[in-house]
Design a protein that fits this description.
This protein is α/β, with parallel strands linked by helices and about 325 residues long. It is built from 11 helices and 8 strands. Strand 1, helix 2 and strand 2 form a beta-alpha-beta unit. The relative contact order is 0.18.
Length: about 325
């Protein structure tokens, strides 16, 4: 795989500083039941990295002591970590909002037959990958049969109450482009998803998030192989919107890798860029309680233009 960090280090991206920490985004490991072309984590079935029980306890301790509002669980497929249900149980007991970044197909994996019911019982908010509402496009990006399995999973979640107004069970979908292009306007695409999925499959959901593909890891390496890396960076830089800077997720979020070290965002984590704390090279989550991150500088590089291009992009969808 081609390394992208050397192409991203030198940047004139605007300087940013942190606000109050509200969200911990925790990567529970890189193991996944899929290997998607656009995956900025380069996750897959053969990856073995996973967060240990000791590090999970350190995360839970921070949640309890720091008054964190949201726990955002990612992977790989976060549900494949043996500690997944324990961390959900404990966080919800603390009245923390829990988000599961779910690829949908995990609901049909062996030993995960009761996963959907578990998520519903604990009122876990699901952010589910469905990069298109057309079968051909999804299977091209994520593998043959993935769309069909995803539709079955969505119907199962709907049957539990997910995606229905006033149920309290939030089901949001995620779109990302098929290649080196910016996402279309989120509101219009959400309307298209709603109409198509309801008419053809009887599926409902709450919101659609549009995400920009980041020029790092697997997707970035593909761009380099095709000679499209600089062209894509020119697209991102040219579409930069200054107004998106106020809404970027790194202002109120800290990303924790599977070893427990802190980063300013999930993308910096994948590039090995640690969270900026003066005088420290790396900060472990077990030390987070000793720090006041508000006002600290945020580590930026060229890939940050992916978050401010066009309508903007964050883990909560478009910014503009």
């Amino acid at each position: 795989m081609h390394a992208t960090l050397p192409l991203l280090r030198n940047t004139d991206f605007p300087r940013l500083r942190r606000g109050r920490l509200e969200t911990l985004q925790v990567n529970l490991g890189y193991r996944c039941n899929q290997s998607c072309v656009h995956c900025h984590v380069a996750a897959g079935p053969d990856r073995t990295e996973q967060m240990s029980a000791e590090t999970v306890e350190a995360v839970l301790s921070v949640l309890e002591r720091q008054g964190i509002l949201t726990l955002d669980l990612t992977g790989g497929a976060p549900e494949l970590n043996p500690q997944f249900r324990h961390i959900v149980n404990t966080a919800r007991a603390l009245r923390v909002r829990v988000i599961d970044r779910c690829n949908l197909t995990i609901l049909e994996e062996p030993n995960q037959e009761d996963l959907a019911a578990f998520l519903a019982d604990h009122q876990v908010e699901i952010v589910a990958s469905l990069p298109c509402y057309l079968e051909e496009n999804v299977d091209r990006q994520r593998g043959k049969g993935v769309f069909e399995t995803s539709i079955r999973a969505l119907r199962r979640l709907n049957a539990l109450g997910y995606g229905h107004a006033d149920s309290g069970l939030i089901l949001n979908l995620v779109y990302n482009p098929q290649g080196a292009a910016l996402p279309p306007p989120q509101e219009q695409l959400e309307s298209d998803y709603n109409r198509h999925l309801a008419e053809h499959y009887g599926i409902s959901f709450n919101r659609l998030y549009t995400l920009t593909n980041m020029p790092i890891q697997r997707f970035g390496s593909m761009l380099i192989s095709k000679g499209q890396f600089q062209q894509y960076m020119t697209l991102l830089r040219g579409a930069h919107q200054e107004t998106n800077l106020d809404g970027v997720m790194c202002r109120t979020l800290a990303s924790i890798d599977w070893r427990g070290f802190l980063h300013d965002c999930d993308f910096n984590q994948m590039l090995g860029i640690p969270l900026s704390v003066p005088g420290k090279l790396k900060v472990h989550v077990s030390r987070l309680g000793d720090l006041d991150l508000e006002g600290n500088p945020i580590a930026v590089a060229e890939h940050c233009y992916g978050c401010t291009a066009g309508q903007g992009s964050s883990c909560g969808g478009a910014l503009g």
